[in-house]
Amino acid sequence: MGSPSGPPYDPDDPDRERRERDTEPIPRYRPDDEPGRGPDMTGGPFLSDDVGYGVGPSGYPGEGRAGRTWDPDQPPVISEEELAGLRADAQGMAPRRVLPLEDEPSSLVARYLFPTERYRGEWKRHWIHLTTPILVGVAATFVLGYLSGFLAGQDVGALTTIAVLLWFAVMGWVAWRVADWWYDRFILTNKRVMVVNGIITRRVAMMPLTRVTDMKYEQSPTGRALNYGTFVLESAGQEQALREIKNLPNPNELYLRVVEEMYEPQAVEARLGKEADEAKADDGA
C-alpha cells in the first residue's frame, strides 16, 4: 500500500510499481541467518544501516559500487584498471620514478653494517664540495708558475726552489682534500642514517631512523641549478652529530628515500623485491 503521507492507492497508477520499488528497503545480512553466510549465500559479513555499501550491480547487497563483497578483515584489492589512473596525471605526466640503488655496499661501507641491516644506498658529497681546493690549486699553479719563471730569470735559484716546493705543498693539500671527499659517504639503511669520513682518523656518526623527529633540506639558487643541498636532521630537539650534512647530491630524491624508509618500509621492500625478480627474469631470458 502507499505511504500514509503519499497519494491514495490506485491499482491503475502506472508509476505505482516504480515508487514501491524505489522505497523498498535495501536487504541486509542478519545475525540470525546461516552462520558465515548472508541471505544471498555470498558469504559476506553483516552490514548495518550506517555502512555506506548498497546493492551492487549484480543485485547483491554489500557489493558497493565496485561489485565486490566488502570484508573489513581483508585489505582492499586494487585491480590493474583501478591503477591505470595512477600511472599518469591529467597532463599526461608519469609519476616519479625512484632511481635504482646499488645492489651491494662498497667495501668502505660494508664493514660498518651489521648482518640483519638492509642496505639502501650510499652517496658521496656533490662535486661542489671540492670548489675551494680546486680553485686554490688552479690559482697556485698560475701564480707560482709565473713567479718561478720570473725568479729563474733573476738568477736566484734558492727562491725558485722555494716556489716549486710551495707549489708541491699546495698540490698535496688539494690531493688530500680530494681523497677526503672520496672517502666521505652518506649511508642509508632500513634502520639508520650514517656519515663515514676521514682518511687516517675515521669518524662514523649515525642516527636511528626511529629517533628522527624532523628532517628538511635546503637548496640555495646555486644548489637548485647544480642539484645539491644541505640536510638538517632533528632528534628530540637535541644537538646531534648528524644535525647538518652539507652538499649532498640530488637532495629531493634522497629526501624521498629517507621519508619512504621511515613511513613506508614495506613499500620499499616490495619495490626492491619486484626489481630483483625482473632482473632475474631478464637474465633468464
Shape: elongated
> Uncertain runs with pLDDT below 50, 5 residues or more?
28-68, 93-97
Q: What's the total count of β strands?
A: 7
What is the N-to-C order of secondary-structure elements (H for helix, E for strand)? HHHEHHEEEEHEEHH
The end-to-end distance, rounded to whole angstroms, is 71 Å
Indicate the structural class. Answer: alpha+beta
Radius of gyration: 34 Å
Percentage of residues in strands: 5-15%
Give me the number of helical elements: 8
Average pLDDT number:
74
Read across the widest sheet, the strand sequence of neighbours is: 1-2-3-4
Helix content: 25-40%
Reported for the largest beta sheet, the result is: 4 strands, antiparallel
Quick summary of this structure?
By secondary structure, this protein is of the alpha+beta class. Helix content is 36%, strand content 14%.
Describe this structure in words.
- The protein is of the alpha+beta class and 285 residues long.
- It is 36% helix and 14% strand.
- It has eight helices and seven strands.
- The protein has helices at 16-23, 80-83, 107-110, 131-153, 157-182, 221-226, 251-263, 265-284; strands at residues 119-124, 185-189, 192-197, 203-208, 214-218, 228-234, 244-249.
- The strands form two sheets. Strands 1-2-3-4 form a four-stranded antiparallel β-sheet.
- Strand 2 and strand 3 form a beta hairpin.
- Helix 4 packs antiparallel against helix 5 and helix 7 crosses helix 8 (265-284).
- The termini are far apart.
- The model is unreliable at 28-68 and 93-97 (pLDDT under 50).
